[in-house]
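In this supplementary section we document a worked example of the pipeline. Step one takes a protein sequence of length 518 as its only input; no multiple sequence alignment statistics are reported here. Step two produces a three-dimensional model, which step three serialises into structure tokens for compact storage. The input and output of this example are shown verbatim.
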Amino acid sequence: MKKYIYLFAVSGLFALGSCSDDFLENEPYTELVTENFYSTPKDAFQGLVAVYDILQREGYGNTLLTSEIASDNCFGGYGIADGQGDLEWDRFLFVTDKDMNATAWKTGYQGIYRANILLENLNKVNWGTDTALKTKYEAEARFLRAHFHFQLARMFGDIVALDHTLKTAEYYSPRSSAEETYKLIASDLKFAADNLGTENYSQTGNANYGRITKWAAEAYIARAFLFYTGYYKKADLAGVVSKAQAVTYINDAVNNSGHALVADFANLWLAASFGQFAGEDNTEMVFAVRFNGSGKGDWNLHEGNRFQVLIAPRGGNIGPYGTGWGGATVNKKLVDAYGTGDTRKAASFIDFAGEGLSFDPVAREQRQYTGYAWKKYCPVTNEHGTGNFQIDNVQDYAVIRFADVLLMAAELNLDTNLAFAQTCLDRVRDRAYKDTTHRVTATKANIMEERRLELALEGLRYFDLLRQGVDVAKAAIDNTGAGTTFNVTFRTETLGWFPLPQSQILLSNGAMKQNPGW
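The serialised model returned by step three reads:
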């Protein structure tokens, strides 16, 4: 059956689908089939943009929000009359909504599918003498395919790894082993790192602003290496990237990327910057999902950040902060972990009482009120402009910041270059405290704690705990003594994996089984 490409002039993007055999004989002028679409570099570029477009479907938070609620950073939150799904993420229960993770699953495989469609058609394009452009597009598409696979694999464990579009006979494919999945992830990331140029697209005014770079690929190799070798207790990344290679990649990103830390941590976040916002094109953003407000209230488009409203203060604007649904209330234990003088504390969390904000949790029907909410990513009043406050907020989601690059470099260099590891850790601490007197010795424990503080509410904490072992995750996540409303018990029998969407298990015709513990 032919695959059709539907072209939408309004967004400049396309989606892929299929039609009945009866319809194939009459091809409307608004449609093109894959067999005749990919002929020029412009066609290939449209295909690449379509892969990038799926990143914006993460605007509901997906792995970011789910993992923060599941970690020790946040509780479920939302309103007292809201459903139980978020409490189930928080308490690692699975009682009511057996498809609660369907959006994350669907989004990931949409991205993988679009990447594979493009990759399978690159050889059909007449590139002329510009074969370097073909390699560049392949590298970007393979990076994105690796990103979508990694998002799924961290959340669900064994998934179906796809390096091609499925044939009819493969529709009921079983899940791949972790080694097979991470071999594909590592190969794709390595290709991207080895074939992309040395540009830094975060620079103001760059025509390629927001696109994948060599530096993003090198940093992503380190992230995948640390998770895979940590959780699965392996010496290398699925036989594709050794530790020495991972160190070389991450050190290159530190030393040669042109990325750097923004001088003031607070200026990374619109709600914390008080008019000194560093901008979304700041030099610290190595890889980010880019959003804008061009959707103007159109729910059929995915231009704006739909995640921000979920974690914003419930029940109406308060102070400079825009209104939202009050999801993922912040655990006071996290707030209390910051040392005196650490600028990241005030920049990361809204402290309702401390900021003199009159927030009545009863009147606002806030569930699991802790006194703290997200300041990172919180929308500011009227951020959405003339659009809809639920879907047209504009802040980008930082997938990899340079601070994360430094901390990964510190961790990976501990055994071979302690001085460099120390320097990398110092740079993060010095920025946080705005002095050099709060430095700590570069050890694994100190680096992991620094990751907790620096990267709080950025979707990394749960997976940092998990890669240290399910026992470590349980010790951190279990919460008692604060009343039954906040009781959390991490169930080690799940091995840390989230439940597969029940709809996907049914569609697999028995090829996929539910994760353990669910």
